[in-house]
Design goal:
single chain; about 300 residues; alpha/beta; Rossmann fold; Histone, subunit A; 6-stranded parallel beta sheet; 12 helices; ATP binding; magnesium
Length: about 300
C-alpha cells in the first residue's frame, strides 16, 4: 500500500498552521514543512515560522535545517520529505505536509523526476556554474536564456526569481529535457489535499495585519541580521519580508514605504499561490474563516480516506 499523506495548502495568512496542529493532535500526525523559507535558521518572524510553544509535543520536520548562506531546492525538498514520510508512516503516524510553496509540493505528489537520477556532485557543479553566471550577467539575462530554451517554463517563473530560473536550467542540463516537459514517475503516495482560502478582501486584510505584527515583533532586526550575513543575491535574502529591506537599511526608503511594499508583495504572492494550487493539484477547498463548521466536513473527509 502507498503511504497516506495529508497535505494542507493555501495562501499565506489563511490559517494553515492552526489547522495542521489541530489535525495532527486528532489523527496522530507529524508535520513536514512545505515552505521554502522556513528551512532557514534565525529567520523566524518573516517566515511566520511555527514557534516551539505552538508546536507543543507535535514533531515538526524540515524547519531550521539550513543556514542562511545555503541553498534549498525542490529536489532537496522532495528527497527529504520522501524520507520523512516513510519514517513517520513506519511509526504508525500520519504525515502532514503544510506549506504554500506549490512547486515543492507538486514535485513530491506528482513525483517529478527533477534530474534526481544524476550524480549529486554533478548537480552541484552545474548549480555552481549557473550561480557564477548569474553574478556575471544578472537575473534578467539568465531568465532570457531560459526563455529562449524553454519559454513554457520561463512563463511560470518571475524574471527576478533567479533561484527558480537556476533550478529550471539545472534540470535541463542534467536531464537533456525541457523543464516544462519533465517526465512524471508513478505517484509514490496516497495523498489527500486540503486547501484553505477565504474572500480576497478578508485575506488581504489579514496579510496587511500580519506584516504590521511582524514589524512590531522584531522583523527589522531580523532583516538587518540577515543582510549582515548574506548578499541580496542569496536565496534566503529573496524571500518576501526580507528582500524589501535593503533600501530601508541603506537609508533610501522610509519604514512606511517598506511595510507597504512587503504587504503588496505578500498579496501578490497569495494570489499566485491560489492560482497555482487551483490549476496544478487536485485540492478540496474550505473557508474556515467564514465557515468554522467546515472543520467538521474536513474531519469527515479525512476519516473516510483513512479508513480506505
Amino acid at each position: 500500500m502507498q503511504p497516506k499523506v495529508l497535505v494542507i495548502v493555501g495562501p499565506t495568512a489563511v490559517g494553515k498552521t492552526a489547522l495542521s496542529l489541530s489535525l495532527a493532535e486528532k489523527y496522530q500526525g507529524e508535520i513536514i514543512s512545505g515552505d521554502s523559507m522556513q528551512v532557514y535558521r534565525q529567520l523566524d518572524i518573516g517566515t511566520a515560522k511555527v514557534t516551539p510553544a505552538e508546536r507543543g509535543t507535535i514533531p515538526h520536520f524540515l524547519i531550521d535545517i539550513r543556514e542562511v548562506t545555503e541553498s534549498y531546492s525542490s529536489f532537496d525538498f522532495k528527497q527529504l520529505a520522501t524520507q520523512k514520510i516513510h519514517e513517520i508512516t513506519a511509526r504508525g503516524h500520519l504525515p502532514i505536509i503544510v506549506g504554500g510553496t506549490g512547486m515543492y509540493i507538486a514535485s513530491l505528489l506528482k513525483n517529478f523526476n527533477l534530474g534526481g537520477d544524476k550524480d549529486d556532485r554533478e548537480r552541484q557543479q552545474i548549480r555552481q556554474a549557473l550561480e557564477i553566471e548569474l553574478d556575471q550577467i544578472g537575473s534578467q539575462q539568465l531568465w532570457k536564456r531560459l526563455n529562449h530554451i524553454d519559454p513554457d517554463a520561463a512563463a511560470k517563473i518571475p524574471v527576478q526569481n533567479s533561484r527558480r530560473t537556476i533550478r529550471a536550467l539545472e534540470v535541463i542540463q542534467q536531464t537533456g529535457q525541457l523543464f516544462s516537459a519533465q517526465p512524471l514517475l508513478d505517484p509514490e503516495f496516497d495523498a489527500t489535499i486540503i486547501g484553505l482560502q477565504t474572500q480576497r478582501e478578508r485575506l488581504y486584510q489579514r496579510i496587511n495585519q500580519r506584516v504590521v505584527q511582524m514589524i512590531d515583533t522584531g522583523l527589522i532586526d531580523e532583516a538587518a541580521w540577515l543582510f549582515r550575513h548574506v548578499s541580496t543575491e542569496s536565496q534566503s535574502a529573496k524571500g518576501i519580508g526580507y528582500r524589501e529591506f535593503p533600501p530601508y537599511l541603506a537609508g533610501e526608503q522610509s519604514l512606511a514605504q517598506t511595510i507597504e511594499q512587503i504587504q503588496l508583495d505578500s498579496r501578490h504572492y497569495a494570489k499566485r499561490q491560489l492560482t497555482y494550487f487551483r490549476h496544478q493539484l487536485p485540492t478540496t477547498w474550505y473557508d474556515l474563516l467564514e465557515d468554522p463548521a467546515a472543520s467538521q466536513r474536513i474531519e469527515h473527509k479525512l476519516e473516510t480516506w483513512l479508513e480506505k
